[in-house]
Design a protein that fits this description.
- This protein is α+β, with helices and mostly antiparallel strands.
- It has 3 domains: about 70 residues; about 80 residues, Signal transduction histidine kinase, dimerisation/phosphotransfer (DHp) domain (Helix Hairpins, Orthogonal Bundle); about 150 residues, Heat Shock Protein 90.
- The protein has 9 helices and 7 strands.
- Strands 1, 2, 3, 4, 5, 6 and 7 form a 7-stranded mixed sheet that branches.
- The chain starts with a helix and ends with a strand.
- The structure holds adenosine-5'-diphosphate.
- The site of adenosine-5'-diphosphate has 22 residues, from helix 8 and helix 9.
Length: about 350
């Protein structure tokens, strides 16, 4: 039945009821003549009767119409919003709609953030790739313009091209590793090994780099042997990234880099401490973001890609561990993390 038909029948019904009440009232006026209290009582009873009848008729009308409208709205709105619940009223419908619109607003915000992040990410990647690519292009052009004839120049340029290609490969490998971590494709190979030996190996590996700036590297282990349960190869990457950062950001004479290892309960604490340039407090929360570099480090010529600490964080998170940093600007920085202790 259409709503206007229903209203029409309801108004007919109400008019009928009103006429009946008027008739009863008129009848009581003539039959209960001169009885003032009787008149007032009949009048009151008639009003009450009208209120009750109006209430039920209007209630039925609104409910009937409301349910019809709600079931029509249900067919338009998505199923996930309405659920399986039958007999929903307008208040519940309003709550569902506002819940849904809040959810949609949050989703939209996330999508906008992702979009900005995606743009930034692509911008950052192309920026990082551009520098070595332009270097390669420059040397190749010079060689093609005749420099290739001069053997000394040729060898120098070829070795610079080689360095730039290495750098490109490093960036691509780092990106690939981060992507694999983020898509959960990396499985750790957990073994038990002596972390002291691994740290010594990494110190030896980076010794040449340290010598270039006359930096000293020291291992301070609380015990001769300290076993941990972790992925040896991934932890060696963590150590290389942290120790090479300590070397690169020393920026001073008498640079000292210490790796301190001590067992604490069922964990082993590893600290990489330097007395280098430090990090300003405002930059600290961001250094683990991909491509983030403190302003003064952006022009580093030997070029980090700003991915080193992001990788460190990913590797440690895969081990269910955290990385912490404490830094005093111009005094030094300490990175620390724990690993599960071995037997
Ligand atoms: P990068 O490739 O630039 O070294 P990282 O992710 O390894 O990228 O580091 C991010 C930034 O954190 C660096 O650019 C540098 O500004 C800062 N940083 C990292 N380690 C140190 C450190 N030991 N001392 C001072 N600054 C550091």
């Amino acid at each position: 039945m259409k709503f206007h038909q229903l209203t029409f029948y309801a108004s007919l019904f109400l008019t009928g009821v009103m006429m009946l009440v008027a008739f009863v009232f008129d009848f009581s006026k003539t039959s209960i003549l001169n009885m003032k209290t009787g008149m007032a009582a009949t009048f009151l009873a008639s009003i009450l009767l009208m209120i009750v009848i109006n209430y039920f008729v209007l209630d039925f009308l609104f409910n009937f119409y409301g349910k019809k409208q709600i079931s029509r709205i249900r067919t338009i709105l998505p199923q996930e919003m309405m659920g399986q619940e039958e007999g929903m009223n307008f208040t519940q419908l309003g709550e569902r709609v506002s819940e849904m619109s809040q959810k949609t607003a949050t989703e939209l915000d996330t999508m906008k953030e992702m979009e900005t992040y995606r743009k930034e990410y692509i911008g950052n990647i192309s920026h990082e790739l551009k520098t070595p690519l332009f270097t390669i292009q420059g040397y190749v052009e010079t060689l093609m313009d005749g420099a290739v004839e001069n053997l000394a120049v040729r060898d120098k340029y070829l070795s610079r091209i080689d360095t730039s290609v290495e750098r490109l490969l490093d960036i691509v490998k780092d990106l690939d590793m981060i992507n694999q971590f983020e898509s959960g494709e990396i499985d750790l190979t957990i073994t038990e090994f002596d972390i002291n030996i691994l740290v010594r190996e990494m110190i030896d590996l980076l010794d040449l780099e340290a010598q270039k700036i006359n930096a000293k590297m020291q291992l301070q282990a609380a015990q001769q042997q300290i076993f941990v349960k972790a992925d040896r190869q991934r932890i060696s990457q963590v150590l290389v990234n942290l120790i090479s950062n300590a070397i690169h950001y020393a920026n001073r004479d008498n640079a000292l880099i210490q790796v301190i290892i001590k067992p604490i309960n069922h964990k082993v604490l590893i600290e990489i401490k330097d007395n280098g340039m430090g990090i300003k407090p405002e930059a600290l929360p961001r250094i683990f973001e991909r491509f983030y570099r403190v302003e003064s480090s952006r022009n580093r010529r030997d070029g980090g890609s700003g991915l080193g600490l992001a990788i460190v964080k990913h590797i440690l998170e895969a081990h269910h561990e955290n990385i912490e940093v404490h830094s005093v600007y111009l005094e030094g920085t300490t990175f620390s993390f724990t690993l599960e202790k071995g037997e």
